Amino acid sequence: MEQQLREHLEQVVPLTDEEFALALSHFSGRRFRKHQFLIQEGHPVPCAYYVVSGLLKLVHTDEAGKQHILSFAMEDWWESDFRAYHTQTPASLALECLEDTAVFCLTLPDYHRLCAALPKLERFFLHKATLGSMAAQQRILSLLTTSARQRYEQLLAQHPALVQRVPKTLLAAYLGVSRETLSRLSA
Amino acid sequence: MEQQLREHLEQVVPLTDEEFALALSHFSGRRFRKHQFLIQEGHPVPCAYYVVSGLLKLVHTDEAGKQHILSFAMEDWWESDFRAYHTQTPASLALECLEDTAVFCLTLPDYHRLCAALPKLERFFLHKATLGSMAAQQRILSLLTTSARQRYEQLLAQHPALVQRVPKTLLAAYLGVSRETLSRLSA
DNA sequence: CCACCGGTGTGATGTAGGTCACCGGATACT
DNA sequence: AGTATCCGGTGACCTACATCACACCGGTGG
């Protein structure tokens, strides 16, 4: 699992053995089981998480109790309630396991220490943040321009595996439609 | 206008006079007038822009010819079609002046050179990218959870000045509703 | 074996918002 | 002045999707 993290980092910045050891020393590995929460709404957000294996949902629950899924975090994803993480305020989102999951945790102080100790990783995080913000913009555009059916078809095309792994109810909460409408789209 | 850029950078990372001079040498200042395009769909995207003054829209036009506004770029904003910029592919978005506008331009090679020459600025861009991606996530959430009316009221609360500066038609294209519905919301 | 529950389909009905068509006031161009 | 173009309001109608209600199936645990 260390190896996987190393390859992930090295897809962006090459690292010597010593550099990787230094980086690794800032992370801690943890395992969670289905239905466990890494982040709960209203609680502090200690870490950002790199997902080694498993699947999680990043979700907001509105006043009416309805769930809205911001993203599914799969293998090789970074996930957290980044607003709450960076500002050290209570979470407005929950991060919950949909499957048994292994992650590397990075606390905020460790994140800052790591960037200071190894500026290369600052480049890595800059790269990830840039990609993340481009993806988010794409999703905004897709919410602005396309119908529920089109978004579902896009999702099928881009993440066919996900559609298998996840109950339709959750896909609906991700796409921004009701369970029932999603069900009727297959026709 | 140099002073404004300097203050903007220094809100995140302090700079010596020499450092700022070095940074500044990578930018070029330009002025555009209302209705001019900094980026056109289908064209290459030479630069990222820091807006000194004025107002622009970042917009996508769909097959039906309808405009969807991803963001309004105001004073102190960074804007571009970042996907096209970073991947050096043709733009899928247009960036057009809504008012006479002054910007600093940063080409992609200059961006890389600047980060290499002055790692502090890497930290600056990381900071901006992080904020940008948090804001985008917030907007996704707002599109998933709230009605047109609520989004309009949020916009009124958060950017009252913008609502004055911009025709309602464009606000509608930003909020993801038709001009007509937005017009009826005031009631 | 049965009760329960998570996941899914489907009908009936309600509604937010889209679309089309038209109008009237304000600039702006010549 | 006169005309076009932008901007915004409003009525009539339509459609995509939400909501509510119910029914079915396949576990899983007492």
From TrEMBL, chains A, B:
Record-linked SUPFAM superfamilies: cAMP-binding domain-like
Domain Cyclic nucleotide-binding: 30-116
UniProt cross-references to InterPro entries, sorted A to Z: cNMP-bd_dom, cNMP-bd_dom_sf, RmlC-like_jellyroll
Xref: CDD domains: CAP_ED
Pfam short name (any one): cNMP_binding
UniProt protein name: Crp/Fnr family transcriptional regulator
Organism: Hymenobacter nitidus
